[in-house]
């Protein structure tokens, strides 16, 4: 059965999109069938996978508005085993438009139900807010992966996010798990970076992924070529880190894994 993972943190710039795209690509390379849903009106995952956002006719927005069905909006990407539901520019309006709908927190869940089992993993790239779109992702998800930047104020806002997750568990989705906290943009030369790692591990212990994503300039470059880090430079630290994360996730799920690409 397909597993739905929301990648969420209401802070912007912490590595949500980078993680969603590259974890999805890594799982695809490890021969899992993966669907990425771009649920951020900024559409960075869509453009990062080489799709021209302006040319998107139907995407997550039309899906949530029930204008189209999931299988009509799924597009193939250049990355093996990775499909995408792109974001559409109009999605900016969705928070307002969904407000009056009955079941407004359950739209994403309803939409994914018919296609869930076609995939091993469905990853949802969330917007930097705790608005209705993110709430929909948390209600639809089996688990949530929380990227945390190894920077000043790393834990700022985390309490609020964890409270939101608790209330979703209480009201809408009792089975929602925390997949893990993922340390991103780690720079081993910086004392601060190391302090954040120590602090997060001390507080959250085995909730934190063993894999740490290092700061790697190639991860910043790849999206402008519309490629995952694995396609852009498979030998880079970034590619190694995301392959390692994918393997860790598969091991946590008790899935058979290959330890390397090819
Ligand atoms: N590990 C990393 N090393 C270097 N740059 C990174 C890394 N992770 C993300 N970035 C860059 O940092 C910026 C913010 O990352 P992004 O994934 O878009 O965050 P979010 O989706 O949480 O807003 C982007 O320009 C991205 O390319
Ligand atoms: Mg993003």
Count of structural domains: 1
Instruction: Write the CATH homologous superfamily.
Output: P-loop containing nucleotide triphosphate hydrolases
Q: Which strand-content bin applies to the residues? A: 5-15%
Radius of gyration using CA atoms only: 17 Å
Put simply, the count of helices is: 12
Main β-sheet: number of strands, strand sense, barrel status? 7 strands, mixed
State the CATH topology: Rossmann fold
Residue stretches low in confidence (pLDDT < 50, at least 5 long) are none
Would you kindly provide a written description of the structure presented here, covering whatever features stand out?
With 262 residues, the chain is of the alpha/beta class. It has one domain: Rossmann fold, CATH 3.40.50.300. It has a seven-stranded mixed sheet with strand order 3-4-2-5-1-6-7, sandwiched between helices. Helix 1 crosses helix 12. The longest helix has 16 residues. The radius of gyration is 17 Å and the shape is globular. The site of adenosine-5'-diphosphate has 16 residues, from helix 1 and helix 10. Adenosine-5'-diphosphate binds next to helix 1 and helix 10.
